[in-house]
Design a protein that fits this description.
Elements: H1 19-23, H2 30-37, H3 39-47, E1 58-64, E2 67-72, E3 75-76, H4 78-91, E4 95-100, E5 106-110, H5 111-127, E6 135-139, H6 144-155, E7 159-162, H7 169-179, E8 183-187, E9 189-192, E10 195-198, H8 200-208, E11 215-219, E12 232-234, H9 235-238, E13 251-252, E14 256-261, E15 271-275, H10 277-290, E16 299-302, H11 309-321, E17 325-329, H12 340-348, E18 352-355, H13 357-366, H14 369-372, E19 381-384, H15 391-401, E20 408-410, E21 445-448, E22 460-465, E23 475-476, H16 480-487, E24 503-511, E25 517-522, E26 527-529, E27 532-534, H17 536-544, E28 549-559, E29 563-572, H18 580-598, E30 606-609, H19 623-630, H20 645-655
Parallel strand pairs: 4-17, 6-7, 6-8, 7-14, 8-11, 11-12, 16-17, 16-18, 18-19, 19-20, 29-30
Antiparallel strand pairs: 1-2, 3-13, 4-5, 9-10, 14-15, 15-23, 21-22, 22-24, 24-25, 26-27, 28-29
Helix pairs in contact: 2-3, 4-5, 4-6, 4-11, 5-6, 7-8, 10-11, 13-15, 17-18, 19-20
The structure holds adenosine-5'-triphosphate and magnesium ion.
Adenosine-5'-triphosphate (ATP) binds near residues 269, 436 and 519.
EC number: 6.2.1.1
Catalytic activity: acetate + ATP + CoA = acetyl-CoA + AMP + diphosphate
Keywords: Acetylation, ATP-binding, Ligase, Magnesium, Metal-binding, Nucleotide-binding
């Protein structure tokens, strides 16, 4: 990519925070000034949200960049901070987790219950020979034991490596091997799409390839038949019979907490390493600030799976360190019917909902009449994460879910950043549909050109982070060199110029005339059409703004005349006729619509109407696979693809020239 990204779309709608929310907001405008005046002092103050067994001596040690140490000398126990201290403060009877199984079974888990379970699991892991620094792989459905297992590892200073419960034997075994995990925690199965879906057979095969695994701890969830080997132990025969008390030991602020592999949207997943003091500080502060969490009245629901970073930071560590009450749901959004999410919001009177653009666009496809049937009046704040949210999806979310009352926080961050980095503050920021707005207090994000120079307002380029932040990744597990090469070798000191270490996020962005940030997708996905750098996100958003379109993915395919040409894969909304001539007319109409919205340079060469798009298990569009299809190559790494049949469907559509 050369100097800048073209700035094609212009969005003028603005939404100020609702006055009552602004008046009672946890964080107000002066936080930005305070953090700008003294960034480290600001983070030191946020670290006081936690209980430290020993105070730190230095906020940030950046003497060996890019390897950061935060709160050096400090000691704490992460599980104590997420569980015990709330019980000690008299909130033992408060509900931590309202769990809803897909078949409709429920469990209510208080902070006291959580303390008992986490203590038992910590005792069992210790008995199984797990000690501080060891790795435990967790391969579970969305059941409370997932959070319990993570906290039990944290409690004894062991590291967890959560692997999404839908991954294959290959994906699981390579992650177990990469981390040299000693113990695997799994279940017989979980419920998905109305039926039990087995997990244990995948673990059996994976463990057969991983001789380093000593024990497999199995939760009984579905009751289905499982093969039983000598490494296997039932959770209910071990954990649930273990001693119910456990004394938490304090560990160093840089004690590793977990390894988590990135989604694999752009290539082979990276094992991201997070540690404890800084990570928990930022997870805790951002949950308090961005979701304006009110412990007395809020019911939070993050719809992510614990298998990706959003589940780590905003199901486990952020909410629980704040003593929040939250909903955890096991299943899919359309089981047994397409209103399931809204039924859950109503049932538990959810006040703050955090979900992903992919889900919002799916709900758009299903139709407005579905959310309209439910009482969503408990909601007061909505969040989005995972991909750029197209302005029309944002507007749909606001109107149909938020009923034009609730502010939306579009939160940009990554597995690597550990916590939210760029987001509106709901009581402060006037939001624009599709923009993540501004960096949070204490975060220095910037948009730069090829030479690491900030672009002016109105310009576009690379998103970078100029200063270390508490929940930053510490390295890629076992591969410091890849850590340096991937994130620190593009700009600044890491690239051999300047003395500032600049973190390269891999995302394109623009800064509008007001200084608000717009995420424009992966730098790898930027298209170069007749000498213009065009972002996939802007073209996709133009397509989604057409009333017949629910979702779109755009890629640049090699073209003899323009260098690259824009190829769009488009999912029509539910009620749209796409048969024969109607389909041809729609395609022409869409091409013209994009040209009118963004200019003729962005007019797609080809538009295909498809039933589905290839997505990662975390719901992100995998454009690299579509580029392979558009350029008629064989597919790259598909291990994190959600549904492999989708690629066959799309490729066969390509061949028939549709
Ligand atoms: P890999 O690094 O293996 O390709 P991944 O980047 O998809 O996988 P994650 O860490 O889960 O793995 O995702 C982070 C990325 O998601 C960001 O770099 C960005 O591209 C995208 N993203 C997340 N939130 C937002 C948002 N609010 N707006 C725009 N993009 C977002
Ligand atoms: Mg990434």
């Amino acid at each position: 990519m050369s100097e800048t990204l073209e700035n094609l779309s212009s969005e003028t709608r603005k939404f100020p925070p609702p006055a009552p929310l602004a008046a009672a907001a946890n964080v107000t405008a002066p936080a930005y000034d305070q953090a700008a005046a003294d960034r480290l002092g600001f983070w030191a103050e946020q670290a006081q949200r936690l209980s430290w067994a020993e105070p730190w001596t230095q906020v940030l040690d950046w003497s060996n960049p890019p390897f950061a140490k935060w709160f050096t000398g400090g000691k704490l126990n992460v599980a104590y901070n997420c569980v015990d201290r709330h019980v000690e403060a008299g909130h033992g009877d408060k509900v931590a987790i309202h769990w809803e199984g897909e078949p409709g079974d429920t469990r209510t888990i208080t902070y006291s219950d959580l303390l008992t379970s986490v203590s038992q699991a910590a005792n069992t892991l210790t008995e199984l020979g797990v000690s501080a620094g060891d790795r435990v792989a967790i391969y579970l459905p969305m059941i409370p034991e997932a959070a319990v297992a993570m906290l039990a590892c944290a409690r004894i200073g062991a590291m967890h490596s959560v692997v999404f419960g839908g991954f294959s034997v290959d994906a699981l075994s390579t992650r177990i091997t990469d981390a040299s995990a000693k113990v695997v925690i799994t279940a017989d199965g979980g419920y998905r799409r109305g039926k039990p879906s087995a997990l244990k057979p995948t673990v059996d095969e994976a463990v057969a390839r991983c001789p380093g695994v000593e024990h497999v701890l199995v939760v009984r969830r579905t009751g289905q038949e499982v093969a039983w080997g000598e490494k296997d132990l039932w959770w209910h025969e071990t954990v649930e019979r273990a001693a119910t008390t456990h004394k938490p030991e304090a560990f160093d602020a840089e004690q590793p907490l977990y390894i988590l592999y990135t989604s694999g949207t752009t290539g082979k997943p990276k094992g991201i390493l997070h540690t404890t003091g800084g990570y928990l500080t930022q997870a805790s502060y951002t949950f308090h600030a961005v979701f304006d969490h009110k412990p007395e009245s809020d019911v939070f629901w993050c719809t992510a799976d614990v298998g990706w970073v959003t589940g780590h930071s905003y199901i486990v560590y952020g909410p629980l360190s704040n003593g929040a009450t939250q909903v955890m749901y096991e299943g899919t959004p359309d089981t047994p019917h397409k209103g399931r999410f809204w039924e859950i919001v109503d049932k538990y009177r959810v006040t703050v909902l955090y979900t992903a653009p992919t889900l919002i666009r799916t709900m758009m496809k299903w139709g407005d009449d579905i959310p309209a049937k439910y009482d969503l009046s408990s909601l007061r704040l909505l969040g989005s994460v995972g991909e750029p949210i197209n302005p029309e999806a944002w507007m749909w979310y606001r109107a149909n879910v938020g009923r034009d009352r609730c502010p939306i926080v579009d939160t940009w961050w990554q597995t690597e950043t550990g916590g939210i980095m760029i987001s509106p503050l709901p009581g402060v920021t006037e939001t624009k549909p599709g923009s993540a707005m501004t960096p949070l207090p204490g975060i220095s994000a910037d948009v730069v050109d090829d030479t690491a120079t900030s672009v002016p307002n109105g310009g576009g380029g690379f998103l970078v982070l100029r200063e270390p932040w508490p929940s930053m990744l510490r390295t890629i597990w076992g591969d410091d060199q890849r850590f340096i090469d991937t994130y620190w070798s593009r700009f600044g000191a890491g690239a051999g110029h300047g003395d500032e270490w600049v973190y390269f996020a891999g995302d394109g962005a623009k800064r509008d005339e007001d200084g608000a940030l717009w995420l424009l997708g992966r730098v790898d996905d930027v298209m170069l059409v007749s000498g213009h750098n065009i972002s996939t996100t802007e073209v996709e958003s133009a397509l989604v703004s057409h009333p017949s379109v629910a979702e779109a993915a755009v890629v640049g395919a090699t073209d003899p005349t323009t260098g690259q040409a824009i190829v769009a894969f488009t999912i029509p909304r539910g009620n749209v006729d796409t048969e024969g001539e109607a389909g041809e007319r729609l395609i022409q109409d869409l091409r013209n619509h994009v040209a009118r919205t963004l200019g003729p340079i962005a007019k797609p060469r080809q538009i295909m109407l498809v039933p589905e798009l290839p997505k990662t298990r975390s719901g992100k569009i995998m454009r690299r696979l579509l580029r392979d299809v558009a350029e008629r190559r064989s597919l790259g790494d598909v291990t994190t693809l959600q549904d492999s049949a989708v690629m066959d469907l799309i490729s066969s559509g390509m061949k028939s020239g549709k």
